[in-house]
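# nightly structure sweep
# worker-07 picked up a monomer target from the shared queue
# config: single-sequence mode, recycle default, output format = structure tokens
# input follows
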Amino acid sequence: MEREFEKSLCLGSGIPFLFLSLLISVPNGVILIALYRNPLRCFRKAFSVFLAFIAAVDLFVGIVVCSGGGVMRLLCAFGEGSIPRDGDILVILGYIGINSSILLVTAMSVDRFVSVVCPHFYLRKIKPRKLVLCNTIIVVFSSIFASLQLTGISMDVYLLIDVHLHTTFPLVTTTLAYLGIFFVLRKHSRVDFQRQSTMPSNSTLHNMRRINATRMGRKFATTSFFILLFLILSLVPYFVTVLLEANCSDCRGQKWFFVLQESSVVFLFLNSAINPFLTIFRINELKQSVKIVFCPRR
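# output follows
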């Protein structure tokens, strides 16, 4: 790659990285503070564990990965550095953040499936402490898998495993989970509608709670589905470049391929900026908690 072209490429991607660092860090920090303060006392449920872990991973991506990527690319543009490559510490940290997000969202979709299909089992057996342990194992596993790049493993083999482990498996798992959620929620909606139509003026407290729980479950399931959707959309350009690099040997030395590769890496982290806004606007309790914590009334 020509040095002047590399400098222009570093400058063109370094500025978006620094902008993404600010755009990711601030809202995810706000969410974590709101979850910790918990002014409405409504985030003691299991689902809140996933919100906290996803926000923490995204905050790590914003503060460490994106800011470090921006600084490294600006040094490349104005100094003697180069674009971070596979095997570099910064790239490994990026793998940790992205892979953790993918597996956390996959685990969250399975969690929503179990809570909708087997609500009584979920309430009895699934506790926040167990989900904290599960999510911690996911983050540790992603860290170990990303660190395999330091062992000298072939990057072609590594990327092949990475594609199937963090794309094929999550996509199949989440698709099956949300299909199950869709059919179960549709069945619950029919049952609730029949109950309301047969005894509209005699709704017991138990029925009202059941209906409210169904609505809340539907809202959480829809929110986690949108998180998954935006995650997949942000991954598509990156994995297209991976497939091109693996199957098109003539493309590797072309300038347009380097531009596409850098653009896909920048696009990869957009999901971490979308997640906090999506969760705040989709979950009213979180929105109200943020307002109480950061915009207190006198």
